[in-house]
Amino acid sequence: MTSGNTSSTQRPGARPGVTLGLRQNLAQFMLLVAVNALVGGTLGQERTVLPLLADQVFHLDLYTSALTYILAFGLAKAGTNYFAGTLSDRYGRKPVLVTGWFIAIPVPLLLILGPSWGWIVAANVILGISQGLTWSTTVMMKMDLVGPSRRGLAMGLNEAAGYLGVAATALATGYIAANYGLRPGPFLLGAAYIALGLGLSVLSVKETHHHAQLEAANHTVAHPSARADLSNRQVFTLTSFRDKSLSSVSQAGMVNNLNDGLAWGLFPVLFASAGLSIERIGILAAVYPAVWGAGQLVTGALSDRYGRKPLIVGGMLVQAVALGMVALGQDFGIWLAAAVLLGAGTAMVYPTLLAAIGDVAHPAWRARSVGIYRLWRDGGFAVGALIAGILADAYGIPAAVAVVGAVTVLSGILVAVRMRDTDHKPAL
């Protein structure tokens, strides 16, 4: 069993002075929290504005066409997540993080200047690649720093920062769009985030790969699947299919982001069709990730104390209830309550899924397993865009939301039946 206590024990060749633990690495950890808030803000610049841009500027009539940007984003981010884990093991975490920020530089320009919808889709391909590199590495670096004992808390802080960044920016861009137009104002904020994130990552962020090496040196194996010497193919099949816990987490992550893709792409259109103002749409677009982000400050630590499985199952079912309220609702009050509930359910699930991956995966291939989980999870954006678009075109947005809610219930049941609850003080 790996001890929950931090350790300064060095293996041969390890860097002197390297220790594991949140308190021991607090300054660097909090810097990474700030960096991930900027990563989230870079995504948040789109949450309120892009669905309205598709409708009001480019006049895309079919929901499936309007959701192409989420499909492009999801596919690009999902694929990049896989490579982010492999690259960070090979070259280190910091080079991957910095590269992700460099790749994001043209995104605001494409969103501001794009004369056709194809430019917007291209911007989202680039944004997906950037997010796959930057968000994945901030997750890995925090896992590296804290070690095994407070992993849920670390993931809660990481994801809270990211999604509070999404929420604050969605709210800010809604205000900017309402007062100054859909372009260019909202995307100038995104450009500022990219400049600041790149500067901090280059000048202040330190490499953390040696922390993972220290943990691996003191790691004992409880069962054969957790041994250190697994190939990329073995890690992929274990995370995706063979291990009951890892594969349950992967499918739940995909369904969770299917819900998020639906909320991102169709909720603003639904709210606008009901006559809500841009300001109110911005509020609804911000409340969901705000509750999601703030809630993770609590739920990550709760999963350390009470285990991962109860929060995952409960969170998926809460999300399903919220989606039912969106499908049946017809006014701002009901949708506001649904946004709060959807954010709460997602907060229960999101950091807990990442922590569960960290519990089971060996430190030697944990970054690859996280990348594979995030491949499946962010593939949910693409699946959600396709399913939601096709169903909304055929039967309307409320029907699409109801179907996705039913899928979410099934996902929660699958976790309840199949997943072994990982030890909140990881035992591999």
TrEMBL record:
GO molecular function: transmembrane transporter activity
Keyword annotations: Cell membrane, Membrane, Transmembrane, Transmembrane helix, Transport
Domain spans labelled Major facilitator superfamily (MFS) profile: 20-423
Pfam family, one: MFS_1
SUPFAM superfamilies linked: MFS general substrate transporter
Locations listed in the record: Cell membrane
Entry keyword Cell membrane: yes
Principal location: membrane
InterPro entries for this protein: MFS, MFS_dom, MFS_trans_sf, MFS_Transporters, Sugar_transporter_CS
One GO cellular component term noted in the UniProt record for this chain: plasma membrane
Bilayer-spanning residue ranges: 25-43, 63-84, 96-113, 119-139, 160-181, 187-205, 311-328, 334-354, 375-391, 397-417
Keyword Membrane part of the UniProt annotation: yes
Topology term for the membrane: Multi-pass membrane protein
Name of the molecule in the record: MFS transporter
